[in-house]
From TrEMBL:
Protein name per its UniProtKB record: SMP-30/Gluconolactonase/LRE-like region domain-containing protein
Entry keywords, A to Z: Signal
Signal peptide per UniProt: 1-20
Top-level taxon of origin: Eukaryota
Amino acid sequence: MFAKLLFYYFLTNLWVISTAAPLTPIKGPQTLSSTVLFEFPKGTWLENLVIRQTDGNALVTVLSAPEVLLISTTNEFRPITVATFPDAIGCLGIVELGHDVFYIVAGNWTAATGTSTLGSYSIWEIDLRNRGPKFAKTTKIVDLPGSGFLNGMTVLNPVAGILLVADSLNSAVWSVNVHTRDVAVAINDTSMAPMQYGTLPALGINGLHLLGSELYYDNTDKATLNKIPVDLNTGKATGPAVTLLQSTVTEIFPDDFTIDFEGNIWMTADLWGQLDLIPGAASTASTNASSKEDKSNTGWTAAKFGTKQEDLRRGSLYITTNGGPINYIYSNWTAGGALLRIDTVDLVL
Ligand SMILES: *[C@@H]1O[C@H](CO)[C@@H](O)[C@H](O)[C@H]1NC(C)=O
Ligand SMILES: *[C@@H]1O[C@H](CO)[C@@H](O)[C@H](O)[C@H]1NC(C)=O
Ligand SMILES: *[C@@H]1O[C@H](CO)[C@@H](O)[C@H](O)[C@H]1NC(C)=O
Ligand SMILES: *[C@@H]1O[C@H](CO)[C@@H](O)[C@H](O)[C@H]1NC(C)=O
């Protein structure tokens, strides 16, 4: 099953870039196709993913149910439910910490109302070491009673076992040590705060990823991409936050993002079902790549690069979708959540 994705590539003077470097010339428009690997029933919200280190398949969190699924990136098997979580409505951020040990965020966020149950979030471990995917061992690591709405997650310090988790409601980044189970507010900065618009839920900091000792994060309501230098042992800020990209929610709608080997940022714009490419992350140009008119695979939530040989050759980016976030209010979806693939080497910049 193939779906066409219009891929526009251009600059806009609405986007304020923090550097004084000259903007690169306009090229395009560009067209890239997306391949649907698997589409679920309408109302299935795929929220986030990691590409599993041992086999290059996708471990995907579901937000409309408290589940984590293993989805083949080559259509070799049907999706497998790897883990389910009691006392939670859905799952959000996911990381792999060493081969086959995963951590996820579980909690109570209701898509139909866009509301979060304060303090309902916890971090769980999924251990797939020496086990088939149907026999995972799941363990609760810790509850976060002070959480507002936990969302994206990234690894801060793999040696000490410290993760960072975005709190989209309480304007913060939490640190969680999965070995000692210590939890702390690592950063609380106004660049992470939400500012609700109309029917849209309050969503501040959403995705976060570490590059060196800089923590990159976006803010959905403020339509920004930011970075802040952090201490790699505590996650605490060692300097001020810098806003790299300032847009509006009618242009972009930042959900999670991933950083490629050249430092380009590929950001999923949930509401618009589009992928925004920000070349060089902290440097020169900003672009948008869109399928706003395409209702067949809308609601793009997260993206990760594949690791199989053919993925490297194609520059394959795997994308989770929810089928359109606003449709959850009215139950009138036009598509189910899906795992898509886009081959980025087809984009000639
Ligand atoms: C979260 O939702 C689950 C499932 O509905 C429920 O069992 C649990 O009590 C809720 N947790 C909180 C803290 O409200
Ligand atoms: C961050 O600071 C804001 C403003 O003071 C506060 O409302 C929020 O609860 C804080 N977040 C956390 C996780 O403590
Ligand atoms: C991309 O953004 C520009 C303005 O920043 C807007 O005019 C254009 O419609 C957007 N492209 C698509 C396809 O949404
Ligand atoms: C879903 O319902 C809402 C409210 O009636 C409407 O605004 C929206 O256009 C509908 N979406 C679709 C895809 O039918």
